[in-house]
Amino acid sequence: MSFAIVTDTSANLPSDLIQKYELSVVPFSFFINGSEHVDLDAEHFDAAGFFAAMRAGTKVSTSQIPPQRYIDCFESLLQSGKDVLYVCMSSGISGSYASSMIAADELRDKYPERKLLCVDTLAASLGEGLQVLRACELREQGKSVDETADILLNERKRMCQIFTVGDLKYLRATGRLSGVATIVGTMLSIKPVLKGNELGQIVQAGKIRGRRQVIEDLAARYDREVRNPNAQTIGIAHCDCRDDADLLIKLIRQGKAPRDILLVDYEPVTGSHIGPGSLALFFWSDDTIRSR
Questions:
Q1: Does the structure show a pLDDT above 50 at 127?
Q2: Same-domain status, 77 and 161
Q3: Which spans in the chain are helix H?
Q4: If you compute the radius of gyration of the chain from its CA atoms, what whole number of angstroms results?
Q5: Helix, strand, coil percentages for the chain (3-state, nearest 5)
Q6: Which of 97, 130, 156 is the C-terminal boundary of a domain?
Q7: Are residues 167 and 152 in the same domain?
Q8: What pTM did the predictor assign?
Q9: What is the mean pLDDT of residues 86-106?
Q10: By residue range, what is the domain housing residue 111?
């Protein structure tokens, strides 16, 4: 293995893929009633129970990841003689990238013979996870850590992230929305369509009346915006709304069917910010997708 690839739990990758590509994962924390939890076992995460508790009023919060957590992960790999590439959650919605850079700066001084690079994906959930898998693909092709980082930084603008939520109150409460005043909300069955912009922030992309209609709109956007679908794996993540995810998959396969679809439950940290009933779609488009 030419270099180690590190990501974080926000990437939302299943355990089998983490093991297959020998990924290291920095754990993010969440708090329930003040008690800290770390969930690294995606295979056994009780997503239905977690989001049901949120629906019932359980308050879930998160906190900034301290640089020491990155140091603990990165240093063990550097000590083993490996260069390290960290593929990180969006700086537009999290301070995790800033913390990783603090850790990286400290460790570069300590291990000057090694390379430690951090890539801000400007994405979350499988928008980040698909970029991690791209890094794995590039490593298998024999690319160096520098070449892989450069390619990811160039290609990240092509990652389309579109989603809808069951209730905007979760995003509003955590301050993850940009341009809040322009968003209508879910009153009168108006459902928001949200996206990740060129800064990795969450912004409004549209509003649709009715849940079925908003799922159809996600599929239609995919059909318009996807590039080379038969050569890519796309991602779908949901917060305890599997029937809606299955409908989205069905609609997508009726159009420009991708090579494969990776379907996951939202992990608890990012899931707590968008809330129960959220449904997200991730795929590769063109260079202008984030800005239009």
A1: yes
A2: no
A3: 15-20, 47-55, 67-79, 96-110, 126-140, 145-155, 169-174, 211-225, 242-254, 268-274
A4: 18
A5: 45, 25, 30
A6: 156
A7: no
A8: 0.95
A9: 97
A10: 4-156
